[in-house]
Amino acid sequence: MQNIPVDVGRLGSLMCVVPPEPRINQETGQVRTDRDGNPTWVVGVSVRQQQTRRADVIEVSVPGEPTGISEGIRVQVTELVAVAWEIEGRKGTSFRAASIAPEAKGPAVPAPSARPKAAGQGADT
Q: What's the predicted TM-score (pTM) here?
């Protein structure tokens, strides 16, 4: 299998569309673990490409249960890698990350203090 680092900064908007759930081994019914023995969780993430209307959903596996993640919130993904795989004639790509967390909120934008006047309206007297 080949691990391909993904430049998350070039992906655009990332949003949780499927909340975290344990990754289950279909044969044994047990929670899968990573190489270090940590249970792995999977999160469905919508990736909207910059400057386009196109969006894709990828499943991202992470070690341990992500906290603060729910459907509809924007997320930050760290150390994302794409893993090309082939099993019994089937091929695909899976995604792993070191962590997924809620996106840090930027500075709040103040609401306008007054609604702008429509064209042709005079000043108040």
A: 0.77
